[in-house]
Amino acid sequence: MEVENDITIKDIIRQGKRKNKNIDKNLIERAYLYAAEKHKTQLRKSGEPYIIHPIHVAYIIADLGLDTQTICAALLHDVVEDTDATYNDIEENFGAEIADIVEGVTKLTNLFKSTEEKQAENYKKMFIAMEKNIRVILLKLADRLHNITTLKYLRKDRQIAIAKETIEFYAPIAHKLGMYDMKMRLQDGAFQYLKQEEYEKITQDLSRKLEENRERLEKTKGRIEKELKKQRIVAILSIETKHLYNIYKKIEEKHITIDQINDLFSLKIIAKDKKDCYKILGILNTIYKLLPSTFKDYIAIPRNNMYQAIHEIIVGEKGVLIEAQICSYDMNRIAKYGITNYFPYLKKINMSEEEIEFKERLAGIHDTLEFKNMVEDPNEFLNILKSELLDDEIYIFTPKGDIMVLPKGSTAIDFAYHIHNEIGTHIKACKINSIDMPIVTKLKNGNIVEIITQEDECEPKKEWLDVIKTAKAKSQIIKLLDENQGKEKTEYLVEIIALDRNNLILDITKIFAQNRLNILALNTQMNPSNVKIDIIMETRKLEKLEKLNKALKELNSIVDVKIGEAKEEEKI
Questions:
Q1: What is the torsion angle, in degrees rounded to the nearest 10, for the CA atoms of residue 455, residue 457, residue 458 and residue 463?
Q2: Measured by CB atoms within 10 angstroms of the end CB, which terminus of the chain is less buried, N or C?
Q3: Are residues 325 and 458 both part of a single domain?
Q4: Number of domains forming the structure of the chain
Q5: Which of the residues 37, 82, 212, 543 is marked catalytic?
């Protein structure tokens, strides 16, 4: 996805046709001429003609293999925001499809109370547009990628603000869409401005480490190539280094130096197919020792963003540590370009199974938008959005072995809502690794979680909002709390006639507990032939009364049950 400095419209069309044979050359040229005319008096901060930016963005889009409409939208993406052109003008000249993509990436121009409020509304608008058309976010990523390369012309405060937003927002989006190459370039480009001293130091240290280990790395690669050839396995091998921002994160999180990073170098091995990947793994483990606890099989259990590969750190020639990354050609292509590999599916008007699956790669975003409508504080919305995008993922298993991917720090409540809203709404208890645990327990990677439900909706607690993680769970709990807040609890008198026996009262109170009904008072009166039990209870939900009545009457030794609203003198 390299972008040259001097790109022309011919380069865009050539690259587009190389990746997508159905490119419409005439429409792209017309979009270019329209954009060039609209931007003709405008200059970028660098002093260059403004049209250079849309050209570079369109080239990135063409390189991703996207269609004519997205390339045209890339050329036109700033004309509505920065010139006198309107949505209607774009629609009239280039059609509604292109106009909608341009509209989706155009920033809001309304006045807001704060920067945070404006930012929150911009994100919300973009994601709503993205839900209708995934190409909106792909164009926005390409736009940000080129902007990152020209940050040097901006003021220091603007450089830092844009770099921070890129690290916190756009790079995680690229990660969720499986666009590893895009993610790395965004992160490293932003890192250069966000932490300039650290960037320069890590660049120098990495260059030093590579030079120190080059001979041992090449010998390790050569030996593996020789062994693969002997076994008649065709594969492409290349030595790579860890990306700069990833090195910085590891140094900061683990409080170590670059010399202590075990996976600083990687040997990428691209095989023909999945079967060869495992053959290569066997060969590696035969000729080199494996560093303990470093084996990860993302082919057997793919990451949530479609990434598949086998990772392990081996001790190569003369003790050099190198992370072997084994994948197939298809896996490598998907890791680099992510969701764009399946672009034909994303154009369909009727949602295919593939499109539904890909939209789920942004799990939590739709729920975050719903959460935005429930809270007034834009900072709260931005925090939950960053949490959905930035937090590490954990893999949780259902008792049947299905895998659910959640943000790190999620609880059993989050897990229940992730499965289905109805499961979350009716959650009663949970088992984690077959042990009864509170539903607010934070889950750990690899936990097997069983959710136990009840017929009635659960009675949510406000304190849950402080511990649950996902926007989906938060928004649903807020809904339930709001519903309950609008309904005052009513006190009812339950009159029970029963034959006396052992554990009678205990069995009766158990039924109230099972139906989550709060007993305010209980009084018993012994008669010669029976016992009369009066219970004052409270509830907001009338449907619970019928269930209670039925359950009590089915209880052994119960003669009669009457339930009615408590009179004033009977209330507690």
A1: 170
A2: C
A3: no
A4: 4
A5: 82
